């Protein structure tokens, strides 16, 4: 554990809940001591917050952190790096730009966690995955045995036609999904 209270590599004993698409794991706050897993117990034991760097996703993460504090739950903040569709057809390599954008979002989320985890007194895990955001959040929720998923509402007008991540999570998930505006 570093001076800032985070673990930069996969912690021992955590490999049973970390899937193949995980790029980075950092733990903050007190160690999470899971009790016996049981669906439907009073209050959520593990809350997943999906972030993408947007205003609504950061509000969703803040709401999830407050809920986790009030319910004495574990919070897993997941950021799924999805390569843009234009990157595959672009003549210019987009690898460096994509990595820089990813690093900026991860640094912003990490900074928010580092500034608040001592105050919250909860176990927080920051997880960075590669792939489709829907699949990444679903995998994380399954692997962490989540009781709730919290995401921000889409700010894109196109999602009214295609469907937002939140809507797809509701239709395909096994957990309550809370959408924060």
What characteristics describe this protein?
Rossmann fold; 39% helix; alpha/beta; 181 residues; 6 strands; 20% strand; 6 helices
How do the helices and strands line up, and which of them pair or pack?
Layout: E1 22-28, E2 46-51, H1 55-71, E3 74-81, H2 85-89, H3 95-120, E4 124-130, H4 133-143, E5 148-152, H5 159-162, H6 165-172, E6 177-180
Parallel strand pairs: 2-3, 2-5, 3-4, 5-6
Antiparallel strand pairs: 1-4
Integer tally of domains: 1
The biggest sheet amounts to: 6 strands, mixed
Number of strands: 6
CATH topological fold name: Rossmann fold
Walk me through this protein's architecture.
By secondary structure, the chain is an alpha/beta fold. It contains six helices and six strands, in the order ββαβααβαβααβ. The protein has a single domain (48-180), classed as Rossmann fold (3-Layer(aba) Sandwich). Helix 1 links the parallel strand 2 and strand 3. The N and C termini lie far apart (35 Å). The model is unreliable at 1-16 (pLDDT under 50).
């Amino acid at each position: 554990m570093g001076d800032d209270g985070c673990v930069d590599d996969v912690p021992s004993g955590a490999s049973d809940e970390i899937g193949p698409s995980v790029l980075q794991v950092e733990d903050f706050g007190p160690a999470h001591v899971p009790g016996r897993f049981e669906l439907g117990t009073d209050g959520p034991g593990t809350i997943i917050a999906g972030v993408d760097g947007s205003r609504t996703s950061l509000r969703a993460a803040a709401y999830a952190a407050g809920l986790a504090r009030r319910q004495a739950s574990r919070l897993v903040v997941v950021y799924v790096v999805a390569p843009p569709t234009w990157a595959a057809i672009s003549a210019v390599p987009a690898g460096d730009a994509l990595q820089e954008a990813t690093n900026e979002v991860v640094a912003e989320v990490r900074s928010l966690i580092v500034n608040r985890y001592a105050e919250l007194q909860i176990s927080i895990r920051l997880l960075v995955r590669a792939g489709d955001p829907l699949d990444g959040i679903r995998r994380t929720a399954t692997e962490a045995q989540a009781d709730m998923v919290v995401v921000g509402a889409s700010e894109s007008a196109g999602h009214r036609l295609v469907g937002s991540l939140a809507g797809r999570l509701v239709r395909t998930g096994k957990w309550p999904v809370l959408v924060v505006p």
